[in-house]
Amino acid sequence: MPLLELKGIIKFFGKLAALENIDLQVNKGEILGIVGPNGSGKTTLINLISGYYRPTRGTIYFDGRKISGLRPDQIARLGIVRTFQSNVLFEGASVIESMMISSRLQYKTNEWQAFWETKAYKDEHEKIVGNALNTLRFVNIFNETFRPAAALPHGFQRMLGIGVALAANPSVLLIDEPTTGMNHEEAMGVVENIREINKQGVTVVLIEHNMRVLLNIATRVIVLNFGNKIADGDPHEMMSKPEVVEAYLGTETL
Ligand SMILES: Nc1ncnc2c1ncn2[C@@H]1O[C@H](COP(=O)(O)OP(=O)(O)OP(=O)(O)O)[C@@H](O)[C@H]1O
Ligand SMILES: [Mg+2]
Asked: Left, alpha or beta for 9 (phi > 0: left; psi -120 to 50: alpha)?
């Protein structure tokens, strides 16, 4: 059984079909790359899986259970967590505060236990704060721990976006163009991080414009064009298909 399955997914915005009849299976442990020209429906796909949008038609299953129709926080609690294409910050929060907001999903102790500072709460809190700090070290922004997130340079904010997603302890991570606005070295750092996250057992769905990044890391690629899936398979094979090359004609990414 696939970990994640999309069956007959259609998404309309008014009269515009952003996605037309998408069938897609994501297997446990893979790094699935999603490519396609601007406006082809990539982000819409992530918005649907993570519950930010509801499909016009079709059903999404996670671990055999229907998740389309659930709210984003319910889906995140099940283990499917997304990052955003633009830098999304918690208003006024520092880097560590941003991490802790997302870490809330991990607490099993309740508000009363927190209020009375029971041992169970304190032990759990210590572990979760420790994990948050380790994650900041992992995404290379540990030195910025107490800075306001809004004051970070763009590349660091992208890394914080991944850190915040990891703080929710995902089993599936949906990442939307993590390397935008980064130089080659920074982008390769992100590639290494994603590879490591995947090695630790997280299934990854990655939207990425940068073909070098994608071919480097994806175990499978799907290609979207005008809301349709036009290719699905081995990354290097996909990129040599005439219809895929044509979808990219005039773009600098291939
Ligand atoms: N909330 C919305 N309301 C109306 N139209 C939308 C909305 N979100 C997306 N669209 C439209 O749906 C289509 C697909 O958009 P989407 O953002 O999924 O593309 P994308 O492949 O992520 O593009 P990009 O590479 O530019 O990020 C586009 O025509 C877009 O304008
Ligand atoms: Mg997009």
From this structure: beta
